Amino acid sequence: MSTENNKIMVIGGGIAGLTAAWELSRLGASVELVEKTCFLGGHAIGFCCKATDECVQCGACSVEDMLKKVVGEPGITVHLATEVDKIGKNGIFSVKLKKSSPTVNMPVDGVIKGYSKNNDPLYVVVDKDKAAQIPEGAVDLSELGTTGELEVDAVILASGFQPFNAEIKKTYGYNQFKNVITGMDLERIKRQYGDVIRPSDKKQPETIAFILCVGSRDERLGNLWCSQVCCPYALRMANDIKFKNEEADISVFYMDIQNFGKNFPDFYEKCQSSMNFIRTIPVDIFPVEDDKLKMRYFNEEDGQSVENVFDLVVLAVGITPDPDNKNLAKLLEIGLNVDGFLGGIDPLNRTRTANEGVFIAGTVEGPKSIAGSMAQAGQAAAEVMKYLEVNK
Ligand SMILES: Cc1cc2nc3c(=O)[nH]c(=O)nc-3n(C[C@H](O)[C@H](O)[C@H](O)COP(=O)(O)OP(=O)(O)OC[C@H]3O[C@@H](n4cnc5c(N)ncnc54)[C@H](O)[C@@H]3O)c2cc1C
Ligand code: SF4
Ligand code: SF4
What we know:
Elements (H helix, E strand, L loop, with lengths): L6 E5 L3 H12 L3 E5 L25 H12 L4 E4 L2 E9 L1 E8 L13 E3 L6 E3 L23 E5 L1 E4 L3 E3 L16 E3 H11 L13 E8 L15 H15 L4 E6 L9 H11 L1 E4 L4 E4 L5 E6 L6 E6 L1 E6 L1 E3 L3 H8 L25 E3 L9 H22 L1
Parallel strand pairs: 1-2, 1-9, 2-3, 9-20, 11-18, 12-13, 12-18, 13-14
Antiparallel strand pairs: 4-5, 5-8, 6-7, 10-19, 15-16, 16-17
Helix pairs in contact: 1-2, 1-7
This protein binds flavin-adenine dinucleotide and iron/sulfur cluster (2 copies).
The site of flavin-adenine dinucleotide has 40 residues, from helix 1, strand 10, helix 3 and helix 7.
């Protein structure tokens, strides 16, 4: 089986899109990879390594590894700062590309840095031909973007997700109190400072609360799904903090803990022996002296109101559908499910869509981890092959 002489468009250059592009190129297809921002790797390219004295299998380094493979692969053409304007189908797909708005998700300093396990070397990817260690500001981003037309035999949509906007949970004071941060912020802080610090004074926090399920499994928000990734990322972060500072006092506020893999029971047991697990949903958070935070919650056993003070509160935000999914569903003539993720039509093969020849992979289809997104991208590439065998 071979997809030789076939051209496939992959929309989205996160880990799902990168993996799909790579798998297709391995099968001999040429790939047009369309990414609307100025960098590849999606959300996960910025994640840090949470290894202690051992790897905790967070998956972050596989994103950088895949990115390096893709930018070095001649069969994959990358269109950064580009979006699909129109698409028509008459056996093959006729695609019109347009430059995306240069402000969409633009990194502040104009370039994104992927970090290797040891933060060394910085791996900067702005442009396929220039992928290397580019000094910041050395590339004119306004030059990026492809316009024009393409013909492709099949499409894989891998346009990803948006992290839950924690401002919506007003009682937690995100963006009001300096030391209430999200999981995404914690990734950035750890990357930038090499350690976990409090935003207010850059000091190491001693008492830290993690609140799980922020924006997920929340009836009031209508977000009923489990985001799958926030238990694991929060516990890995907490474990890393504890490894570096044994004195750190960590409390994890949770409803349920999602089992995430075969080594999980041991890992969870280790976390339980070194952290406080409190089964409740905190009610609200107030600032107190020294930018500390007072959290109020109800004790599950006796229903009593309890107040605790923390140096830092981390909201473990989950995965929500990209608001643009509605437009993408219309553009590609595929279904949107009740939660706002883009729907597969076959529960046994979630890469298939209502539009034959259009396949789907990664978190655009629903919450999943880096490993889960990669697995589904591999499946989507295999489905493209099957489709081409029948239809070409
Ligand atoms: C706080 C947080 C921490 C996490 N930590 C972990 C972890 O430790 N381990 C783990 O396994 N998972 C983790 N995850 C989950 C992980 O982020 C996802 O599994 C992964 O990023 C999914 O990749 P993706 O390619 O589906 O989507 P994304 O990473 O969202 O990539 C999608 C790409 O598509 C592009 N795009 C969007 N729309 C268009 C369009 N119309 N045209 C062209 N391009 C478009 C986007 O710009 C982006 O580059 C975490 C998630 C969160 C929120
Ligand atoms: S980035 Fe994650 S998967 Fe990679 S070495 Fe570090 S802990 Fe392990
Ligand atoms: S993964 Fe954990 S924190 Fe995230 S929604 Fe599911 S149960 Fe809640």
